[in-house]
Amino acid sequence: MKLRKFTDEEKKDTILALKKQHLKDKKQLWLDLAKRLNKPSRNMPAINLAKIQENAKENDVVVVAGKILGDGQLKKKLTLCSFKVSESALVKIEEAKCKYVDLEELMKLKKLTNLKIMA
């Protein structure tokens, strides 16, 4: 996978960290996420909480290779992870007593069960 030129250094560092984690763990998940993030920002998905609520099951780990937006409500206990998250989504995630982790924290988790990638 060839790395694009970035103006966002945070995004570039995250992609490089995902590729490094793939080489370390040999899990295809990290390489898949790196490929999804290696797109222009205008092509990155923006997923609302309502769509996450509709498609996720209780205790799932939902990874969004883009941004989580705050439209909708969460009623299930989930762990959410994304490259970016809106302020309103963070407030609603905390109100629903769900957990939000960024991609670096997700890479540190040992067990990744019930994982769903939404794009």
Helix content range: 40-55%
Distance between the termini: 19 Å
Question: What is the rounded Rg?
Answer: 14 Å
Q: Could you name the ranges where pLDDT drops below 50 across 5 or more consecutive residues?
A: none
| Tally of individual helices | 5
Structural class: alpha/beta
Mean pLDDT: 91
As a percent range, the share of strand residues is 15-25%
Number of strands: 5
Note the overall shape: globular
| CATH fold-level topology | Ribosomal Protein L15, Chain: K, domain 2
Number of discrete domains = 1
The biggest beta sheet reads:
5 strands, parallel
Characterize the structure shown.
The chain is an alpha/beta fold and 119 residues long. The protein has one domain (9-118): Ribosomal Protein L15, Chain: K, domain 2. The protein is 41% helix and 23% strand. The protein is built from five helices and five strands. It has helices at residues 9-25, 28-37, 49-55, 87-95, 103-108, and strands at 46-48, 61-69, 79-85, 99-102, 115-118. Strands 1, 2, 3, 4 and 5 form a five-stranded parallel sheet that branches. The mean pLDDT is 91.
Question: Helices, strands, pairings?
Answer:
Elements: H1 9-25, H2 28-37, E1 46-48, H3 49-55, E2 61-69, E3 79-85, H4 87-95, E4 99-102, H5 103-108, E5 115-118
Parallel strand pairs: 1-2, 2-3, 2-5, 3-4
Helix pairs in contact: 1-2
Summarize the structure.
Helix content is 41%, strand content 23%. It has helices at residues 9-25, 28-37, 49-55, 87-95, 103-108, and strands at 46-48, 61-69, 79-85, 99-102, 115-118. Strands 1, 2, 3, 4 and 5 form a five-stranded parallel β-sheet that branches.
